[in-house]
Amino acid sequence: MADKKNQLNHLAIIMDGNGRWATKQGKPRIAGHYEGMNNVERITLAANQLGIKVLSLYAFSTENWGRPKEEVAYLMNLPVRFFDKFMPTLMKENVKVNIMGYLNELPSKTYDVVQRAMAETANNSGLILNFAFNYGSRREITTAVKEIATLVETGSITSDEISEKMISQRLMTASFGKYSDPDLLIRTSGEQRISNFMLWQLAYSELAFSKKNWPDFTREDLEKFVIDFQNRHRRFGKV
Ligand SMILES: CCc1cc(N2CCCCCC2)n2ncc(-c3ccc(F)cc3)c2n1
Q: So what's the pLDDT on residue 2?
């Protein structure tokens, strides 16, 4: 009997190669970020039509603050431009926006627009578009460990009661329930690194890499990766 196809419920993407895309076009790096933003919309709609339930996109890591301040300033305004341009489409396609990260560290204008986007789409029941924004996985796990250590210190729980489930429930993906862990991670640009993205959640995820830079990654590319994933034999640590 043929293996049954894997169900792709949660797709994660590290959207890399935007600066390189721009350089190849003889344009400034920020032109790559802008085109990368437009591609977020294209791939979000494609993922929604493919029946994917959660799409996690690594937009800005806690390490990205070290980039040139002009570039950071441009990036901090991208969410404003994204929602100005795409919120009507997101609402029409019933997409629910979630932002995971240390949002209280964002500039107030950026913070306000991401909070408004989550509020406006809160009742949508389609694909969850989950932006990792000022997010870092080691910091996320460390925060969960500290919370659990406090529970032990105060006698609320014993250390024997600490479990993987207890840690998972204290991560920023807890609200996704059975879809909290990506089934597949795609990274574009040819780089093959995880870069402190969803380290706990990716424990059993399939990994795939595209040599294309993010702005060039198309719906057709996505469909090929989805078909490849469906035909993989997933092991979850077993033979
Ligand atoms: C601030 C980092 C950043 C970079 C970025 N780029 C640039 C680099 C990555 C490739 C995609 C385009 N995008 N694209 C959408 C957003 C976005 C983030 C949050 C949100 F609520 C709505 C939109 C975005 N954010």
A: 61
Q: Cβ contacts of residue 38 below 8 Å, gap of 6+?
A: 215
> Residues with Cβ < 8 Å from 160, sequence gap 6 or more?
none
Closest Cα to atom 18 of ligand 1:
79
The closest-lying atom of ligand 1 relative to the alpha carbon of residue 114 is 21
Which residue shows structure tokens 């204008």? 109
Protein residue with least CA distance to atom 17, ligand 1:
79
Query: ipTM surpassing 0.85, yes or no?
Result: yes
The tens digit of pLDDT for each residue in 160-209 reads: 999 999 999 999 999 999 999 999 999 999 999 999 999 999 999 999 99
DSSP state of 6: P
φ/ψ bin of 188: left (φ > 0), alpha (ψ from -120 to 50), beta (otherwise): beta
Other C-beta atoms within 10 Å of 21: how many? 25
* Residue 87 CA to ligand 1 centre (angstroms): 14
- Determine the Cα–Cα distance for residues 195 and 25; give it in Å rounded to an integer: 26
Give 59's contacts (C-beta < 8 A, 6+ positions apart): 15, 78, 131, 132, 133
CA of 36 to the centre of ligand 1 (A): 8
Residue identifier of the C-alpha nearest atom 13 of ligand 1: 37
What is the pTM assigned to this prediction?
0.96
Ligand 1 pocket at CB < 6 A: 15, 18, 33, 36-37, 40, 59-60, 75-76, 78-79, 82, 99, 114, 117, 131, 133, 214
DSSP assignment letter at 4: P
